[in-house]
Design goal:
The chain is of the alpha+beta class. It contains 19 helices and 34 strands. It binds ligand PCD and copper (I) ion. The site of copper (I) ion (CU1) has 7 residues, from loops. Catalyzes the oxidation of carbon monoxide to carbon dioxide.
């Protein structure tokens, strides 16, 4: 072939799979040209703001809005009484419970929405909020999920009094939501009881909050002339919002358009449906004007979806040489005032039953009790939608504690129990089918990269030096090998409120050989516009730079379940590849006609179909696209478009090996992360640079959670960490350097072999940081201390161990 670029050169030009392509969205983000919800300004737009409860539990005796309504610029003050005739004073949650939109007779957590003020100006709305007089009568508060289950505990959900059957089975107490169990209880107990070594511990994963930079908000606009409602909002699942809005309001779904514009971080905080959305919709219908509601930072931290708050009691057994014999887990899950998780319907504790982790455990059992308390609802997410972080933290702590009991090296204990590469696909004792993995290879690579043996020697010397009084600093080596489960999920067992969890992609190739693809997902910063174009580039031979990716507008995008649970790559990414393949199949028929050969005589070569054995006779995808629109081809419809709805056969199981090396100052409780090594295996890597960015971001959130972040309540149910003065958000100052690495074990069932990665660094990061703290004190007898490991708590641990002399 003459001077034509060869296949490799042409492949590089595509910027397809594996290319560290620069993020196309950053041109606008780095120049302040993003378009976020709060940037939307419509003529005549009104503004909403909430009156919120200062009490965690109180009866609402009366609401007097007179003074507020008298303030010039105030248009309306909505209360539950106004919503009741519309049937909107309560709304269904994604977990099969219901939740007050506005306080109906009582409030159940501090910050709960009591009244919605609508005014011509954001500041007038805020002033009017202060003028609304609410008469509360305070009630006894329960913030402890164990006390909530006492026979004489106050009844929180009076609306459920006498209801003995919940969305997930029988309720056995007035503050009990559900009990969900999986596995073989008798078998696990018998195996553990008969073991040579048994470790038992309660592991608490505290309550925290995703705290995205942009808070939640929406703009609702009802066009009364043509009956169309448009809703712009910070939605991680715009189609779900459309369907739910239609079901709640009775407006036909085709008359509702939901748009997620640019989103300033979601992290799971923007999956759920909040009262602000419902109130804005009602307000626009009532006033006929667009209504904007954007919460402030304190409202976001106090009232929108928190994460975790899982008390996990574990028992694990082993032989004296370290073979795990069985695992038993019992969780008390504090769901706050309403069960507003967003787990697939069948799994009220998400995928917590991945708690056997990376290990070949013969028999296991887990049970989760969901409980109501006087705290904000939510519980769904924070860089892990479905309780996988909780599960990974649980098993990775239990392994460390077992290693202490065994007097064994924790790296070795892991190695002995890993699921072996030849066991995949592997069915776990709790019923998951792990698609692929090679844990031993990843583990050895990680240990070697940090010189694990050397670190252990240094640690032993440090302990000696400490005992001799030569240093006040201890060295902790935090190990983690996690297995994630992402890509919900097969429609056969994953749905949310009955909506099956498939995803979609629709592609249009334009006549001149560029394209637009639309997906049912929505980027919140992950870089979908960059990476999905790369998948398509490799599938269709159209350079990624010539492909626009559009998400988030329900009027144009195909139906999809949105972005959370690292499902975009496993599900929508698969749909993208499949739609690309449909394009290619049609292109092949067109090329065959143009080249006057049989379809089967053609072969695909990067960006073209060439005649087998005669590579100089070819048609590029661009030429084919032109012909598709402009040439009459017998038996073939004009145009070049495809759509794919993809129902994955299984979830994907990314994994990783993380090692954190931490110095701890015994006298101040301060820590310093000397090294953090993170090896991730997410199957086929689409964009290594974006993956690295995802890992950096996720590790930083893990650092935040493990080392300081928490939503803390006092006994009265007051939120003690409701501002960024007290809620720890790491900056570049606290963030260490991360050393990233990878292995690549493709998913056998995903069309391009890719698994998700966005959640992994949080799932693996939290136990790595926490284990490092624990490991530093191992020589001095520490087995378990609860997160977050802020300076004060570390200092206290040192004191309790008698290290302050
Ligand atoms: N293999 C592979 C995988 C992946 N990738 C890439 O990476 C990313 C991610 O992915 P994924 O994993 O699939 O995921 P998605 O779905 O997309 O997303 C989600 C996630 O994501 C993460 N990340 C991030 N980033 C940012 N920037 N922002 C945000 O917000 C965020 N968020 C977070 C979270 S939280 Mo949840 O909601 O809790 O559940 S879940 C989550 C994208 O771009 C993709 O494409 C690649 O490249 N390759
Ligand atoms: Cu997850």
């Amino acid at each position: 072939m003459k001077d034509l670029p060869d296949s490799e050169e042409r492949r590089a030009n595509l910027k397809g799979l594996g290319c560290a392509r620069k993020r196309v969205e950053d041109a606008r983000f780095t120049q302040g040209k993003g378009n976020y919800v709060d940037d939307i300004k419509l003529p005549g737009m009104l503004f909403g703001d909430f009156v919120r409860s200062p009490y965690a539990h109180a009866r609402v005796k009366s609401i007097n809005a007179e003074a507020a309504l008298a303030l010039p610029g105030v248009i309306a003050v909505l209360t539950a009484k106004d919503l009741e005739p519309l049937g909107l004073h309560w709304m269904p949650t994604l977990a099969g419970d219901k939740q007050m939109v506005l306080a109906d007779g009582k409030v159940l957590f501090q910050g709960q929405e009591v009244a919605f003020v609508v005014a011509t100006d954001r500041y007038i709305a805020a002033d009017a909020v202060e003028l609304v007089e609410v008469d509360y009568e305070d009630l006894p508060v329960v913030v402890d999920p164990f006390k909530a289950q006492a026979p004489d505990a106050p009844v929180l959900r009076e609306d459920l009094e006498g209801v003995t059957e919940g969305a997930h089975g029988p309720r056995r107490h007035h503050n009990h939501i559900f009990t969900w169990e999986q596995g073989d209880a008798a078998g696990a107990n018998a195996a553990i009881d008969g073991s040579e070594v048994i470790a038992e511990e309660t592991i608490y994963y505290h309550r925290t909050h995703p705290c995205p930079l942009e808070t939640c908000g929406c703009v609702a606009s009802m066009d009364k002339i043509n009956g169309k409602l448009t809703l712009w909002g910070t939605f991680q699942a715009p189609h779900v919002v459309r369907t739910v809005a239609s079901l709640l309001s009775g407006i036909d779904e085709h008359n509702i358009r939901v748009v997620s514009p640019d989103i300033g971080g979601g992290f799971g905080n923007k999956v759920g449906v909040y009262p602000g959305y419902v109130c804005s919709i009602v307000a626009t219908i009532v006033t006929g004007k667009p209504v904007k509601w954007v919460e402030d930072r304190m409202e976001n931290l106090m009232a929108t979806a928190f994460a975790r708050d899982y008390w996990m009691k574990g028992r694990i057994g082993a032989t004296k040489d370290g073979r795990i014999t069985g695992l038993h887990a019992h969780v008390t899950a504090d769901h706050g005032a309403f069960d507003a998780c967003a787990d697939p319907t069948k799994f009220p504790a998400g995928f917590f039953h991945i708690c056997t982790g990376s290990y070949d455990i013969p028999v296991a059992y887990c049970a989760v009790d969901g409980v109501y308390t006087n705290k904000a609802p939510g519980g769904v997410a924070y860089r892990c939608s479905f309780r996988v972080t909780e599960a990974a933290y649980f098993i990775e702590r239990m392994i460390e504690i077992l290693a202490i009991k065994l007097g064994m090296d924790a790296a070795e204990l892991r190695r002995i129990n890993f699921i072996r590469a030849d066991q995949f696909p592997y069915t776990s004792a709790l019923g998951w089918e792990y698609d692929s993995g090679d844990y031993h290879t990843a583990w050895d690579k990680a240990l070697k990269a940090v010189d694990y043996e050397g670190l252990r020697r240094e640690q032993a010397e440090r302990v000696e030096a400490f005992r001799r009084g030569e240093t006040r600093k201890l060295l902790g080596i935090g190990l983690t090998h996690f297995t994630e489960i992402v890509g919900a999920g097969p429609v056969k067992n994953c749905d949310i409120l009955g909506m099956g969890m498939f995803d979609s992609c629709e592609i249009r190739i334009h006549p001149t050989g560029s394209a637009i693809a639309r997906l049912g997902t929505i980027s919140q910063g992950q870089g979908h516009a960059t990476t999905f174009a790369q998948i398509l580039a490799s599938e269709t031979g159209i350079p990624a730079d010539k492909i626009t990716i559009e998400e988030g507008d329900t009027d144009t995008a195909p139906y999809g379940l949105g972005t959370y649970g690292s499902r975009s790559t496993p599900v929508a990414g698969a749909a993208t590849a499949m739609a690309g393949r449909k394009i290619r199949a049609k292109a092949q028929m067109i090329a065959a006609y143009l080249l006057e050969v049989h379809d089967d005589d053609l072969e695909w070569d990067v960006d073209r179909f060439a005649v087998k054995g005669a590579p100089e006779r070819f048609k590029t995808m661009a030429e084919i696209a032109y012909a598709a629109y402009n040439q009459a081809i017998p038996g073939v419809e004009p145009g070049l478009e495809a759509v794919s709805y993809y129902d994955p056969p299984n979830m994907t199981y990314p994994f990783g090996a993380y090692i954190c090396v931490m110095e701890i100052d015994v006298d101040t409780g301060e820590h310093e992360i000397r090294q953090f090594y993170a090896l991730d295996d997410c199957g086929t890597r689409i964009n290594p640079m974006i993956i690295e960015g995802q890992v950096h971001g996720g590790l930083t959130e893990a650092l935040a959670i493990a080392m300081g972040q928490e939503i803390a309540y006092d006994d009265m149910g007051n939120v003690r960490t409701g501002t960024l003065m007290d809620f720890f958000l790491p900056t570049a100052w606290e963030t260490p350097n991360y050393q990233t690495d990878w292995t690549e074990t493709p998913s056998p069932h995903h069309p391009i072999g890719a698994k998700g990665v966005g959640e992994s660094p949080n799932v693996g990061g939290v136990p790595a940081f926490s284990n490092a703290v624990h490991d530093a004190f191992r020589a001095f007898g520490l087995t378990q201390t609860h997160m977050p490991h802020d300076h004060w708590r570390i200092w206290r641990t040192a004191r309790d161990l008698g290290l302050h002399g």
